[in-house]
Amino acid sequence: MTSTTSINTTQKDWSWLSGNARLIDLSGQLLGAHIAHAGLIMFWAGSITLLEVTRFTPGVPMYDQNLLLIPNLARMGWGIGAGGEVVSTYPYFVIGILHLVASAVLGAGGLFHVFRGPAVLKNGDGRAPKFHYEWNDPKKLGFILGHHLIFLGVAALLFVGKAVLWGGIYDPAIEDVRIITNPTISPFTIFGYMFGFDHGSWNPLGMAAVNNLEDVIGGHIWIGIMCVAGGAWHITTEPLSWAKKAFTYNGHAILAYSLAGVALMAFTSGYFVAFNNLVYPEVFYGADLTEFAAVQFGLCATFVGGHIWHAIKAKSDGKALEEKDKFSAIITGFLVLAVVVISLVLLSAKP
Known about the structure:
Strand content: under 5%
Number of helices: 11
Number of strands: 4
Largest sheet: 2 strands, antiparallel
Structural class: mainly alpha
Radius of gyration: 24 Å
Shape: globular
Helix content: 55-70%
Order of helices and strands: HHHHEEHEEHHHHHH
């Protein structure tokens, strides 16, 4: 007997695996996905905060309760009294609810832009076309970047307001919440940290060497002002000619630059977690934050890998890389390796 086996050779549609890459030329729908992602982040923050409130046990250290978000709220002075004791969990409940409300608003905005709004912003009404962009248009990309920078600057200045005007933040030095009445404004002090100088003395920890809240808040004042000013400049001014030549303008390149920025933030966060108990007080986080720091450095490595991948994709565009691009990739690899080695040395030398 002869049997015939029928094989289904129909091609399946796997395009959904490409994620948001499907929307690369649909500025309206990509905006919707962007807003929806922000809503998911807000929902996670709000729901986990409320979950931690429900299981919080007074009298037990936060780090022994495996709390993640309440310690972050506590170090900002919410619900905290002398000795780092939680005097009220109500602020945490309110903040959690506000995040859930914000997530609903953002989710609705995301759905609107995906299903009801114009797929391409230039086809919309009112001010929508003003925010349409093309990946190879430096002026419009600078316009979009400017708005992002202003949001970041406002967030930094709101943190300054909390520390200086609205209740203060927790200071481990006095084990209590206090108003920061005299934040450091001197650019020599603030920017000195970036070059390893802590009030005139060399310290390899750089920014993580900061040991007083006046400098922390002063740094955020500078960050807020610079971000807002830089945002206004990018909104109103076309990128300079050298910037147009130095940077690559396409979807992969913009994603690569974004990942590099996030990697820098993860790396900086990892350093602060590992070496600075002023901004990560032991009363909330415990004395050993090695695992916490390792997560930050792991995320940094992941983002750097993504940056390199998308940077190569942006430069090659289906072609072989030029020699100068290969050289840049090699130098970047050595720099990343050097940073990893220095980090390991510093971690091993930590008391």
